[in-house]
Here is the input.
Amino acid sequence: MARFAHTVTVAALDRSWFEEAAGALVDLLDASREGPGGSVLLADGRAVEGLRLLKGRHLRPGARYGEVPAEPERAGAGDSPATLASGAGDSPAANQAVVLRAWRPSHSVEVESLVVEDGMPLKVGLRLSGPRRPSSLTHSL
Here is the structure.
């Protein structure tokens, strides 16, 4: 098995900006709901562009979200959004998804991003403790 190592240097975010942004995002998503066809609807009824619930229940552990094109180019007539997101279809959307591992806005939010690029899978996990007033952000590869 091949192993790769890479170092990325990032500048620190302003803590107050990050806390405000994280809290606003969590509040926005917490007030959202599932709409027709797996669309994610904000509290005011607008759909989140390009985001669909592909599997599971909205904001529940195991929910899988991704982008499914309105008209998949090479997908078969019987391919459902869930089939495309699972990797069984030929659509680019089949190669990426976000799985919600935990949604407890007062305690923690945990997501896992699954991406396949040029046949190489990559899984990245993020956990935000105290999402409305973040105390820590951890990641895993």
